[in-house]
């Protein structure tokens, strides 16, 4: 039986189920301490496998396109934070202060890797450049995101009052070190991971679900749903839609005005308008106080689903056009499967 098109994907349904489970049966006490250790191990394993999976050849192939990468990075780490601050008079009345802090955190995050590459491929964009831009964004985000959070997220209760250098140190230890270890061991385990992509998907999605369950458990124990009205959740949908629409419009306009060909424009649009749930949830766990993480990641979870639906529609539409002579090398159909993640 075919799956109804109006239903979200399985991972989104699992996220919703995890939030409901944490709301009804939150983990607490000594069980929460043990669960936190399990989550840390899962997140470390996730970044280890991503490091082992990332192809150095693909990165080198797209690394020379520095103008494209610069535009993507500026969109990711400059345009979004500026939008989050500039639109505060319009956006902040729609949500609670804790949710607005989550929106600002969302604006500081790196781009996605898997879905950016997949949508670029489906739309017949420059796939090698997308691999390079998305991967560079993900790596730079380990350092740039906590620094930006310290500058624009001023809620000290949410951030726990820790210094950005302490936060960066924690992120390097929990995320970057396992990633580098995976890269170093890629010659030994890279082929096995390529043959067993389901393992990476299981760890990827499983670690996010663990972090979400732990974060919302802590937030529920602190009274999360008593402080967020339904009107604020509706406002959050509007905020997410506005941010995505502006980012898409700006990247379309800028990439065209700077003279990029169609394939490069597609790459800039998809890589420059996306935010990573896979990187954002573990980072939130490290950067923010435990009781605040639930409200902080809620805007990211919603934005993630909206960006997937909108970008999937754009990719299918653009991919159906005749772009012979301008489509980037490496655009392959199998990447469509990755876009569902």
UniProtKB/TrEMBL annotation:
Keyword Nuclease: no
Chain residue ranges for the region called Disordered: 321-341
Record's keyword terms, sorted: Membrane, Transmembrane, Transmembrane helix
Superkingdom, taxonomy of origin: Bacteria
Pfam family, one: SBF_like
Spans through the membrane: 7-25, 31-49, 70-87, 99-119, 131-153, 165-186, 228-254, 283-303
Name of the protein described by the UniProt record: Bile acid:sodium symporter
InterPro entries in UniProt: Na+/solute_symporter_sf, Put_Na-Bile_cotransptr
């Amino acid at each position: 039986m075919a799956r109804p098109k109006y239903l979200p994907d399985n991972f989104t349904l699992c996220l919703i189920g995890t939030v409901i489970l944490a709301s009804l049966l939150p983990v607490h006490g000594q069980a929460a301490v043990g669960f936190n250790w399990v989550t840390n191990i899962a997140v470390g394993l996730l970044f280890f496998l991503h490091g082992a999976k990332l192809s150095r050849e693909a990165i080198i192939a797209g690394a020379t396109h520095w103008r494209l990468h610069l535009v993507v990075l500026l969109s990711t780490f400059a345009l979004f934070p500026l939008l989050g601050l500039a639109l505060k008079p319009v956006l902040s009345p729609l949500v609670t202060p804790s949710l607005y802090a989550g929106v600002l955190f969302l604006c500081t995050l790196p781009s996605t890797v898997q879905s950016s590459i997949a949508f670029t491929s489906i739309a017949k964009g420059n796939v090698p450049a997308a691999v390079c831009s998305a991967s560079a964004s993900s790596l730079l985000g380990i350092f740039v995101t906590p620094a930006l959070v310290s500058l624009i997220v001023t809620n000290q209760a949410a951030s726990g009052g820790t210094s950005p250098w302490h936060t960066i140190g924690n992120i390097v230890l929990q995320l970057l070190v396992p990633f580098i270890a995976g890269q170093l061991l890629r010659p030994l385990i890279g082929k096995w991971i390529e043959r067993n992509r389901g393992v990476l998907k299981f760890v990827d999605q499983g670690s996010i679900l663990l972090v979400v369950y732990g974060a919302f458990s802590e937030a529920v124990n602190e009274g999360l749903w008593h402080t967020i009205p339904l009107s604020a959740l509706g406002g959050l949908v509007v905020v997410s839609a506005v941010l995505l629409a502006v980012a898409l419009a700006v990247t379309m306009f800028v990439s065209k005005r700077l003279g990029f060909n169609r394939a490069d424009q597609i790459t800039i649009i998809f890589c420059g308008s996306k935010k990573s749930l896979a990187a954002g949830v573990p980072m939130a766990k490290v950067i923010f106080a435990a009781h605040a993480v639930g409200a902080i990641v809620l805007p990211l979870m919603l934005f993630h689903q909206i960006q997937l639906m909108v970008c999937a529609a754009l990719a299918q539409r653009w991919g159906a056009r005749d772009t012979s002579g301008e489509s980037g090398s490496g655009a392959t159909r199998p990447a469509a499967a990755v876009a569902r993640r």
